[in-house]
Amino acid sequence: MPKDLELPFDPIARAGELWRARWGDESQAGPMTTATSIMRVQQLLITQFDAIAGRHGLTFARYEALVLLAFSRGGQLSMGRIGERLMVHPTSATNIVQRLAAQGFVERVQNPKDRRGALAVITDTGRAAMEATTADLEAARFGLGMLGQDDQQALFSLLRGVRVAAGDFVDSADRPGS
Amino acid sequence: MPKDLELPFDPIARAGELWRARWGDESQAGPMTTATSIMRVQQLLITQFDAIAGRHGLTFARYEALVLLAFSRGGQLSMGRIGERLMVHPTSATNIVQRLAAQGFVERVQNPKDRRGALAVITDTGRAAMEATTADLEAARFGLGMLGQDDQQALFSLLRGVRVAAGDFVDSADRPGS
What we know:
2 copies of one chain form a homodimer.
Chain A: H1 11-23, H2 26-54, H3 60-71, E1 76-78, H4 79-86, H5 90-102, E2 106-111, E3 114-122, H6 124-139, H7 149-165
Antiparallel strand pairs in A: 1-3, 2-3
């Protein structure tokens, strides 16, 4: 946030006050301000992460794809799998891989199991860009260095509750009968 | 998330395990998984909010602009003020207002204090679309109905700590000497 745009009050808390005054419903101001806070913190983090990844020719989305490939067997994955694991639309996965291929960070090879499908394979320069970005993100403590370990964990757990309830994944520990 | 993409494990927790195994640094897996969780929950919420706003011809970003105008004196604000309060780039604010104007949800009038500047004024149909979207978002409890009031508040407070440390606004209570 540029300094000249810095507000002398919390705009989300103020929105909560206006919300209470206008609709008179205390029970709704909480979810509204919390949801808005999630949006805002995501915006602060992605701005920071994109700037860090940009030093190495990447965006955070392309960096995430490289991490995924680096962690995969043989450093390769199908487009469908990339979209699934990054939780993005297959079209977005294809765009990300096309951009990485143009940069020489991945190569596309034919999928031996699917003649019409392609596999993305991370290259040595792709691994180097990924490692360099990782080092910088770690140095920045992923934008969350202001939180102690207990607060990190508390935040992760609260967000995990949202993800489980939204059906983001099936938690085997939460499955009936398991 | 379509059901056929639903994963039988938590991909963020798994990334944390791989991270620990590969880099062997426990202290980094926490910030990484927490930051990734914020990104993911934002993605889940905005998908839901855009779908709700879409029923009334809006996106969540345009809805937010209408709420801001509805809360403002005279239902009007300058472009700069809209960008500042929505914490978006002035270009984005202009695009949002142009789209709302094309839909008849706002009118643009000349700013009496700035001959080259414009004010956006919310119209009656804009207010109606805003109110209808608000009712639907409230019915959906802003996507956070799975959290009890204490968890809502805890989540808001943790995120507030991130926002204050990131310089998102100046909290007078945190200012030295106040």
